[in-house]
Each structure stands twice: as structure tokens, then as C-alpha cells.
Q: What sequence folds into this?
């Protein structure tokens, strides 16, 4: 049985106490058997989110919800209800004018993600349902974007305390800074809130950094070039990036757009807080799902130390099988559950690093270099998107930054502003020429060398005939091709929609294809995740 919601919109998407999105208001939902292509039914939904094809011909399919979700993506991108702009959105995308309607904050800080989500929204809002992705495909694409955007971030790490009971004779090391008895537990999670590593058993008086170092000595490894996000209770190292100390930031204030980052440290801390929030959410969900982690038990101490590991395993299983979490909101009232009166007040984790692990201290200088490089790269991108570039090229403010930056990087090159501008135009022409040449038959591209490869001499002859400027790139690398692509793709005229009166139009037959209308079963995770 497939379930079509019919009225997926922002007002019907709510967050529960664990900050997990839930789709509400299911009164208009319609069930379809898996052998149905669709169903003709009375139109229900909200104008502005409703599938236009469904609105016109009253045929409901699984792709109707895809259109609804595309409207939600558009609302997030433009910062307002999509009713007035939705009909023109695809035209704006095809014409490369999407920046005219994007919310300025999304444009300034979204980068490649904003562009990718914009393209995804456009495919979801296609008038022809056959050309829309399924909701499963949309979910996969969004998860891919998340992994691509944070491909060097393995996940996030934090420490938390779990109450214990123990013989008073050996209790002293387990007494934490709030004078309660606990074990210090280190958890790592990915950006799907799945727990990927856990270390249990350390005394409550131990610092988070000591627990992390112990985990490293016990086999916990971070792949080379990757890193976890940690809080201020850890040393900043190449494998564990911490925020800048002494730099104030308020996530809610930034999130509402009242104040934007004023330097690279604030920008890094803001982005860091957004990502590291995953481990805080994971720990919050874990403890709410398993209240035993909030009280001391009278099991043997060895078994008490294993309880967090068992809870983490079941947490992952529940998430992996899309378990029902609605009971979380009702469990405090269940007489069979642990009363909140018995919960033990324990620390959340260390807020400051005490420099108590020499092995980590020796890596902080290298960690600071890596963090600064990441933060400066983020800041440069942020400033460029914010002030320096428009759809028609660089702004005067942009050139004020480019020219001094060029001279700082190449102090022995005495180019004037005009010469730098001419060189920028030349590089743009070279890029467009190579881009066209790469698309020709018989041509390949060597990513390592950054150059065109054509084994057949006649192929090169044809390329040079069709694209004379490409002659200078015969057996010559052009290593900045990809960088120029990031700069110019989507900013230049390419005639993608052009045709002449001698050519047939590209209109496709709108006859319904039965295979395209087959409704596949939609699992609950399509709505709950």
C-alpha cells in the first residue's frame, strides 16, 4: 500500500521534542495499491503547493507529493510563500536568473548547496510528472549533497555523563564536578544522527580530552585528511577541529539574519555550531529514548558501564528500521517508566580544554593551521559572494579586492588594473574554448595533468579548425580549468534552449505512459525523516 499525503507544505511539517521532522495533518491522505497507476479523485490540497497537473486533470500519483515537496524547497530558497513565484520559477532557473529571487542570506551563505537545491527544486516542480523524481530519489539526492558538502567531516564528538552507583570505598574518582557519581562517556555520530563510536567506563572526574586520548590508544582512528568536530573541551588538532575560543556567536541570532559574521573566526564558529549540533541532538535523543541513562542503577558496576553501549546499539537499530518515536512524548506519564524525579543532575561535558593531554597539545599548532586555512577559505568565498560578484561579472568592490590581492600574491608582477582585467577576460575565453573542445567526439580529459587528450591527430586538426584558440593547448596543460568552471559555469550564454525555424521543436508527446504512472510504495521514512 502506498500513501499519498496530498497536502505536504511547510505548515504541516512540525518538529518533535527530539528535533525530528514529522508530517502532520494527514486527513487528506489517500492510499493506493501497488498495482494502481494513479487514481482520479476530488482535488484537495493548498494552492501554491498543490501539483498543478493534479489540479487540472484530478489524477493523483506518487509524483504529486514530489511537487508538494518541491514547493517547500522553493519556500526555503526564497524565504517566503511560493504562491506568487512558483509558476515562473523554472523559467528563472533555465534563464540563469535564479539569483534574482533567492533569499539574500541563502545566496550569500549557501554556495554550491544553494545551487544544487535550486536545481533539485526545479526538477520536483516540473509540470510533467514523468520528468519529476520520486520522493525516494529526492531523499537520496539530499543525503548526497550533505555528504558532498561535508566530505572531510567524518562526524561530531562529545562527552556526556551517565549516573552510576558504586561502593563508597572506591567512589572518589567517579565523582564529577557536580558532585554526582557518573561515568564519562564519549560518543561520535555521523550527520544522520547514527552513533558510530562509543567509549564507556571512564571515571566521572576524567576530562573529555583524556577519554578521547584513551579511545585513540585503544584503536579509534580518523582517516587521513578527515576530521571530527569537537567542542571547546578538546584540543584543536588536525583530526579533531574545535571552535575558536573567545569568539562570541549566537546561533539563533545568526539564524534569524539579524547579524552576520564580521570575520573569518565568527563565520567558522557559526558553521561549526550548525554542524556540531548533530551530536548534541543524538545524545538528547539517546537519553530521552532510554531514561536509564539518567539514573544510577544497582547492577554490578561492570554491567552499568555497558548500558550506554547497549542503548547506542538499539538507538541505531531503531533509526535504521524507521521505528515509531511518537511514544517519546508520552513516556513521562507512563507509570512503568522511570520517574523524572529520580533523574540525576550530571554535567553535559567539558566546556574548556585543560591542556591535560600532552599528546594532543603537541598537535595543536598543526591543528590551528588547518582550522585557519579552512576558516579563511570559507571567509573568502563568503566575502566574494556577498560583495564582489554579480551575474554580469565583478563589481567595483570586487576589483578593489582583486587587484591588491593579486599584487600581494605576485609582488614581482607589475600589472595594472586594466592588464589584470584583460587577463581575466583572456582566461575566461580560454576556459569557454576548452569547454567546447572537450565536448567533441574522440576527445578525453586527463584530470591529473589538466589537459585535453586526443590520440588521433585528425581529431586535433578538427578541433583546431572549429576552435582556433584551442591550438595553443595541444599537449599543454591548463590546471585551472576546474577552478574557472566553478567561477563561470552558469554565468555565460551557451544557447542551451536555442533553435531555428529549420529545426523541429523539442516538444514531447504528453500522452500518458502507463509505466510512468506506476505508484511505488512509499515507506513511512519518506515523511518522518
A:
Amino acid at each position: 500500500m502506498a500513501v499519498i499525503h496530498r497536502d505536504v507544505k511547510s505548515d504541516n511539517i512540525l518538529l518533535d521534542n527530539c528535533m525530528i521532522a514529522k508530517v502532520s495533518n494527514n486527513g487528506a491522505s489517500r492510499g493506493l495499491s501497488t498495482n494502481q497507476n494513479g487514481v482520479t479523485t476530488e482535488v484537495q490540497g493548498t494552492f501554491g503547493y498543490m501539483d498543478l497537473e493534479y489540479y487540472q486533470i484530478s489524477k493523483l500519483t506518487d509524483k504529486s507529493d514530489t511537487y508538494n515537496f518541491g514547493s517547500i524547497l522553493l519556500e526555503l530558497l526564497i524565504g517566503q510563500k511560493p504562491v506568487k513565484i512558483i509558476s515562473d520559477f523554472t523559467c528563472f532557473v533555465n534563464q540563469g536568473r535564479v539569483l534574482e529571487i533567492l533569499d539574500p542570506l541563502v545566496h550569500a551563505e549557501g554556495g554550491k548547496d544553494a545551487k544544487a537545491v535550486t536545481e533539485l527544486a526545479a526538477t520536483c516542480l516540473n509540470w510533467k510528472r514523468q520528468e519529476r523524481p520520486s520522493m525516494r530519489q529526492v531523499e537520496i539526492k539530499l543525503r548526497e549533497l550533505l555528504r558532498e558538502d561535508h566530505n572531510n567531516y567524518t562526524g561530531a564528538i562529545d562527552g556526556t555523563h551517565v549516573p552510576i552507583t558504586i561502593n563508597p570505598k572506591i567512589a572518589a574518582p567517579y565523582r564529577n564536578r557536580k558532585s554526582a557519581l557518573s561515568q564519562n562517556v564519549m560518543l561520535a555520530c555521523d550527520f544522520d544522527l547514527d552513533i558510530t563510536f562509543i567509549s564507556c567506563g571512564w571515571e566521572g572526574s576524567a576530562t573529555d580530552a583524556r577519554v578521547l586520548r584513551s579511545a585513540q590508544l585503544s584503536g579509534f582512528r580518523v582517516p587521513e585528511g578527515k576530521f571530527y568536530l569537537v567542542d571547546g573541551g578538546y584540543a584543536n588538532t588536525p583530526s579533531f577541529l574545535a571552535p575558536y575560543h573567545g569568539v562570541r556567536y549566537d546561533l539563533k541570532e545568526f539564524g534569524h539574519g539579524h547579524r552576520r559574521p564580521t570575520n573569518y573566526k565568527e563565520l567558522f564558529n557559526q558553521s561549526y555550531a550548525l554542524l556540531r549540533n548533530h551530536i548534541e541532538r543524538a545524545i538528547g535523543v539517546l537519553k530521552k529514548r532510554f531514561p536509564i541513562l539518567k539514573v544510577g542503577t544497582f547492577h554490578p558496576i561492570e554491567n552499568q558501564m555497558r548500558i550506554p553501549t547497549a542503548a547506542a546499539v538499539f538507538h541505531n537499530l531503531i533509526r535504521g528500521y524507521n521505528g515509531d518515536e511518537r511514544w517519546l512524548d508520552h513516556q513521562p506519564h507512563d507509570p512503568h517508566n522511570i520517574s523524572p524525579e529520580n533523574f540525576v543532575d550530571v554535567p553535559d561535558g567539558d566546556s574548556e580544554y585543560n591542556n591535560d593531554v600532552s599528546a594532543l597539545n603537541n598537535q595543536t599548532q598543526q591543528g590551528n593551521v588547518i582550522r585557519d586555512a579552512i576558516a579563511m577559505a570559507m571567509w573568502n568565498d563568503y566575502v566574494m559572494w556577498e560583495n564582489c560578484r554579480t551575474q554580469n561579472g565583478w563589481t567595483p568592490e570586487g576589483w578593489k579586492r582583486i587587484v591588491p590581492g593579486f599584487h600581494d600574491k605576485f609582488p614581482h608582477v607589475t600589472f595594472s588594473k586594466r592588464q589584470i582585467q584583460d587577463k581575466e577576460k583572456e582566461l575566461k575565453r580560454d576556459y569557454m574554448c576548452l569547454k567546447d573542445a572537450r565536448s567533441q567526439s574522440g576527445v578525453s580529459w586527463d584530470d591529473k595533468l589538466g589537459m585535453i587528450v586526443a590520440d588521433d591527430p585528425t581529431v586535433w586538426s578538427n578541433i583546431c579548425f572549429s576552435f582556433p584558440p584551442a591550438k595553443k593547448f595541444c599537449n599543454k596543460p591548463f590546471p585551472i580549468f576546474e577552478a574557472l568552471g566553478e567561477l563561470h559555469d552558469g554565468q555565460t550564454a551557451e544557447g542551451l534552449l536555442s533553435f531555428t525555424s529549420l529545426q523541429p521543436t523539442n516538444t514531447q508527446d504528453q500522452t500518458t505512459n502507463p509505466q510512468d504512472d506506476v505508484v511505488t510504495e512509499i515507506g513511512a521514512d519518506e515523511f518522518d525523516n
The domain at 2-148+517-528 is CATH 1.10.510.10 (Transferase(Phosphotransferase); domain 1). DSSP finds 16 helices and 15 strands in the chain.
